[in-house]
Amino acid sequence: MKRYRIAVLPGDGIGVEVTPEALRVLEGVAESHGFGVETESFPWGAAYWEKNGRYVPDDFLEVLRPFDAIFLGAFGWPERVPDHVSLAPLVRIRQAFDQYACVRPSRLYSGVTGVLEGKGPDEIDFVVIRENSEGEYVDSGGRFKVGKPDEFALQTAIHTRKGIERILRFGFEYARRRRGRLTMITKSNAQKYGYVLWDEILDELRPEYADVEAERQHADAAAMNLVRRPEAFDVIVAANLFGDLLTDLGGVIGGGLGLAPSTNTNPEREFPSMFEPVHGSAPDIAGEGIANPVAAILSAALMLDWLGEEGAAAMIRGAVESALGNGAATVDLGGRLSTVEMGDAVIRAMAERSPAGRG
Ligand code: NAD
Ligand code: IPM
Ligand code: MN
User: Fold this and answer.
1) What class does CATH assign to 1-100+260-359?
2) Which of 27, 120, 329, 355 qualifies as a cystine partner to 333, CB 3.0-4.6 A?
3) Which atom of ligand 1 is nearest to the CA of 14?
4) Whole-angstrom Cα distance, residue 102 to residue 301?
């Protein structure tokens, strides 16, 4: 029997509430599909910081390195630890493990009321592929003349030919497996070095992917168009920061952040990839037991796709679809189910689909 070793980082806030639900679903689907999941959980986060003066241990990358995959709840608790401290390890994992492709699907499931009037499941089904290893997230810069009246800060984005080309190829190949449409989102009308390089590389690659219809949009227009005409998007490729912004937008267009999953993929498989919801630790609702676990559950499905267990992943998505379609809803979706009850609803839907409905 195949066994996968997963490092689990529940993290902070609702991270520790939604992660167990994703793991319950994972264990259930593993059993019905004949593979094993061995998890090891690491209690890193704000409480660890208060005890040890560090958010994660110094050797956290070496600890995570041998696992087949990493599953993360969420980090961050701004009242206890500054965000740029608590989130640094997350960004470090993405960069050190070269998880350069961040895949964030937005799909409105039927049964969920969307925020866009007149746009249903047929109109809302796109994937944002976010460059996850460079751009604005590289710590390049510094603080100068600190405390002086002429103090300044410099923070420089880095866009490399290698980084742009590989994420665009990833996007083109992804688009080939979907509806064959790619939209690259930049701001090359204002940022004439970095984003003009993106434009040029897109044009260089076009002939190799002539079967994919590739267009460009500036980020301001794209934000508007995602609201106005979400059906015009299939695969979006964006640099790091635009990808971040557009996936909170994509999350809410797809029914809410409580439903939005994410990968942090190292396509070459030289390092473990990491899977997590798009949302954060949501301190405003943490501890109430009302967080929606579906984003975490769908992130576990993306992890199974990556591990080669596509049938099990499809079963999870099918179960989520039927649970939502039958009206299962947490507070963010206008319902009354608790986090655990929502997990139960997905597990029940899985049981109904197994074994005849497998896959
Ligand atoms: P957030 O995503 O945590 O929450 C935004 C809003 O969405 C909140 O009102 C929250 O209650 C709601 N929400 C989010 N997930 C939900 C769910 N599963 N069910 C129901 N409602 C949900 O964003 P924020 O409040 O800006 O950030 C909180 C903390 O999380 C900060 O420290 C931030 O830096 C961090 N953060 C971490 C990650 C991560 O670890 N990957 C991602 C984003 C934000
Ligand atoms: C995300 C988050 C992170 C990001 C933060 C918490 C560093 O917002 O995963 O979308 O900006 O990448
Ligand atoms: Mn974000």
Assistant:
1) alpha beta
2) 329
3) 18
4) 15
Q: Return the CATH fold of 114-254.
A: Isopropylmalate Dehydrogenase (3.40.718)
Task: Report the separation in Å between the CA atom of 241 and the middle of ligand 3, taken as the mean of its atom positions.
Answer: 9
In the chain, CATH 3.40.718.10 covers 1-100+260-359, 114-254
pLDDT tens profile 162-209: 999 999 999 999 999 999 999 999 999 999 999 999 999 999 999 999
DSSP reduced 3-state for 245: helix
C-beta of residue 127 within 8 angstroms of C-beta of residue 105? yes
Residue 26 reports pLDDT greater than 90: yes
Cα–Cα distance measured from residue 300 to residue 279, given in angstroms and rounded to the nearest whole number? 14
Ligand nearest to the Cα of 279, by number: 1
Mean pLDDT of 29-42: 97
Q: Ligand 2 centre from 46 Cα, in Å?
A: 17
The pocket around ligand 1, CB under 6 angstroms, is made up of: 14, 18, 74-76, 78, 83, 87, 90, 257-258, 276, 279-285, 291-292, 295, 332
The reported pLDDT for the residue numbered 358 is 44
Residues enclosing ligand 2, CB less than 6 A?
87, 90-91, 244, 278, 280
User: What is the tens place of the pLDDT at every residue in 307-336?
Assistant: 999 999 999 999 999 999 999 999 999 999
Summarize pLDDT for 57-78 with one digit per residue, the tens: 999 999 999 999 999 999 999 9
What value does the mean pLDDT take over residues 261-273?
A: 98
Distance CA 26, CA 183 (A): 33
Q: What is the pTM of this model?
A: 0.98
Q: 202 exposed, middle or buried (CB, 10 Å; 0-12, 13-18, 19+)? A: buried
